[in-house]
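Dissemination and training. As part of the outreach component of the grant, students in the summer workshop were shown how a complex can be specified as a set of sequence lines and then modelled as a single object. The example used during the hands-on session is reproduced here so that future cohorts can follow it. Participants entered these lines:
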Amino acid sequence: MADAVIVVVLLLVAATATAAVATRDPSRQALVLSLQGVVLAVLFTVLQAPDVALSQLAVGSALTPLLIMLSVRKVRRRARTTDEGGDG
Amino acid sequence: MNAWILAATILLGAGLTAALWGVASGPLSRRMVAQNLTTAVACPSLLLLAQGYHRPSYVDLALLLALLGPVGTLVFARLLADELAVATPAAWGLTWTAAGVSAAVVVAVCAATGPSRAMVKLLVTGVLLIGGNLVASRALQGGFRQVRGG
Amino acid sequence: MTRRTALAATAELAAWWAAFGLLWLVLVSTVDALEVLVGASAAAVGAVAARAGRRAVTAR
Amino acid sequence: MSRRLRLAVLAVGGTGLAALLVLACLDLPSFGGRWHPYGEAAVRASLDRHTANTVAFVNFDLRAHDTLGEMSILFAAVVGCVVLLRQARDEHREPPQPSDVAPPVRRYALLVLPVALVVGLYVVAHGQLSPGGGFQGGVVAATALHLLYLGADYRALERVRPIGTYEVTDALGTCAYLVVGLAGVLAGTAFLANTLLPYGTFNTLSSGGTVPLLNAAIGMEVTSAVVVLLARFLDQAVEIEEEQGS
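and obtained this result:
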């Protein structure tokens, strides 16, 4: 009974990771990934590893989404400029 | 297992399952609202867990999430602004419910702590959490309407 | 920079510094001399960042 | 190699891996047991050296060499990123357009920027006392600066972020870690040995010998490294344009 919270969070981690793999579009995937970062941080907390949870929170909640979304924007912009260049 | 951890388990199980369902399916606006909901669910749970484990230093985790969670939502709102402009998410009911739950959890944890500096820290966390949540919801609804290219 | 703007700048920095000093005192668990010193320095960094951020947005 | 053969090879490998994993799991100690030989040794050594947070003790005292390696990885990754994402000859910079952000969002960003910075510094300074440390606090402090991009625009961020300074600070943080390590050698013990400073009073900022110093060096390195890394990504995503028809 005392481990119920660990079981619940482990199931959530498994479900979120599966959802992250099953999502195809990178920007939608980044959304699921940020959720997974938070769930992983909660898992580390209930396993009594607050230092690791803090690292996961710091990296997963804002930094990783920012890096992914900037890369997606660069790739999309590049595709757009090449299209325009091809037309002209 | 005490009542605090039980409450955290229920909040995590119900809230994060709903957030996962919202974030993994449906149109972009729904996904964004669900992503914003994540912070509002996980941060109060971390406060409850800190109280349940009798570890005041675990409050730092909730404080960091209250600061950085809304920043994550702002990242998505800003960089997906063109797509969001087509279908603006409107979920003020959900936002205010989340704010109410956060406020209730913060008040309960504060009452258990008693008047001290630790209680002020909990209140600061609560203010940052609720304020961040409201601002992130506002940002989703055309907060970055004029952003193009930048 | 005239005397008036210098005064305004000092007042703004001092207000931010006091606010962040209080925030630091709320965050820490035990208070001693070194803690107050480190807190005051961190609050000074925060005050400079707050003013720089505000000026970067308004001065255009 | 046909599809069937590939699937057969995969099945053989997968079955073998599954069998090994099951065998390994059968031999594991039960979940949440009370028997942690390494943990107990680490906690005892950490209390000997007056470091309240055992994880910080392991990172910056017992296994300080590992942290040196991790820091070098981050440093090398940032240097590689700076080289790869530089402005190429057939690219030009286009100044980003100023953007119009809703006033509440802007006010929130301007308020949370310094608050997150102070909290980041708090996490760095209290690494040896409470959960946290140089890496976590550094990432928070670096993220805080980028609220200026989110709440205003890239030009506002560029005004408060002299990138050259951050590149120098990155190198300085790395050097500071090595200098603290070498000071141990000069004092007659060993590289990164925590015998240099008095261990101080338990649970105060000055406890733990060289742990707070190494923590601060890592905090400095990580903050600057993340700022430099994000600056390159932002440059590419916002400013740098390819020449037409190239």
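Chain A has three helices and no strands. Students were then asked to discuss how this feature might be tested experimentally.
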